[in-house]
Amino acid sequence: MSAELSQEEPSAGALTGGGPVLEVSGLEVHYGLRRRRRRALHGVSLSVAPGETVGLIGETGSGKSTLARTVLGLVRASAGSIVIGGQNVTAYSRRQWRGLRRSGVVQYVFQDPLRSLDPDLTIEASLTEPLLIRGTAADEAAARVRAYVSRMRLSEDLLDRLPGELSGGQRQRVAVARALVTEPRLVILDEPVSALDSANRVQILRILKELRADGTALVFISHDLGSVAGIADRIGVLYQGELVETGAARDVVNHPGHAYTRLLVNSAPTLRAAPADRAEREALRALLHA
Ligand SMILES: Nc1ncnc2c1ncn2[C@@H]1O[C@H](COP(=O)(O)OP(=O)(O)OP(=O)(O)O)[C@@H](O)[C@H]1O
């Protein structure tokens, strides 16, 4: 653990209860003040079990990123509660949230990997840093980094490069490896494959599916039902700031209950029988049925 963390702040060891990894209840989030105050989330409740993958889908502006950012302590809730690893973190101070993020219990991957990677650090330094912060010995950290580089189908030759010297797909794989290398209990992935071409998208989804076996819970956010359907155990549908439907992935895809979900299913380019991009559609279907 970092020397900066005080005793009142959480450590990975302190947050290892047997209940849900994440429990969000009645979450309300507003942006702006007085007349400019706008509601972004209303009454959102969601529970994520250890090792479970929950997909969150919704159109632009539905509140997906707001939910991710609130669960990471980057946006403050106006009402409701957030419990991570059995610990009620709703009223945490900024410093406590920073401590929680640095503790490695919860990690995150954003759409743009350049946001999570320091442009001046080599890939090796970027991947090693979160382990060293947690007090992992240097030789063990180096071995763990190489293991994750291999799992992410990255070449070790990339380790001494800077993020700017990698392709978008390679960078995003590094960002995913960085989030997973501490073996967190919960990873929030906000549109992790949206900026990638279809080959990279399918490959990263396949790797994420393999990693579920490790027991890490994933919250996978996307506007694209097709990307989420292949790896999620459960899917939640956000519409205008409300969670209008949650259910087993297959049920939501095959028997959508809410009209908005039906619309999403019908317009998901990877699920409907459109002639375009057939290879990707088939690969995603195979993931769904694997
Ligand atoms: N910092 C902010 N200040 C004010 N309003 C915001 C802010 N961030 C988001 N919003 C508003 O909150 C609502 C939800 O935004 P959010 O970014 O969570 O949606 P989203 O589903 O992630 O959309 P996208 O798929 O486009 O990223 C939108 O109406 C948005 O305009």
UniProtKB/TrEMBL annotation:
<dbReference type="GO" id="GO:0055085">
    <property type="term" value="P:transmembrane transport"/>
</dbReference>
<feature type="domain" description="ABC transporter">
    <location>
        <begin position="24"/>
        <end position="265"/>
    </location>
</feature>
<dbReference type="InterPro" id="IPR017871">
    <property type="entry name" value="ABC_transporter-like_CS"/>
</dbReference>
<dbReference type="GO" id="GO:0005524">
    <property type="term" value="F:ATP binding"/>
</dbReference>
<keyword id="KW-0067">ATP-binding</keyword>
<keyword id="KW-0547">Nucleotide-binding</keyword>
<comment type="similarity">
    <text>Belongs to the ABC transporter superfamily.</text>
</comment>
<dbReference type="InterPro" id="IPR050319">
    <property type="entry name" value="ABC_transp_ATP-bind"/>
</dbReference>
<dbReference type="InterPro" id="IPR003593">
    <property type="entry name" value="AAA+_ATPase"/>
</dbReference>
<dbReference type="InterPro" id="IPR027417">
    <property type="entry name" value="P-loop_NTPase"/>
</dbReference>
<dbReference type="Pfam" id="PF00005">
    <property type="entry name" value="ABC_tran"/>
</dbReference>
<protein>
    <recommendedName>
        <fullName>ABC transporter domain-containing protein</fullName>
    </recommendedName>
</protein>
<dbReference type="GO" id="GO:0016887">
    <property type="term" value="F:ATP hydrolysis activity"/>
</dbReference>
<dbReference type="InterPro" id="IPR003439">
    <property type="entry name" value="ABC_transporter-like_ATP-bd"/>
</dbReference>
<keyword id="KW-0813">Transport</keyword>
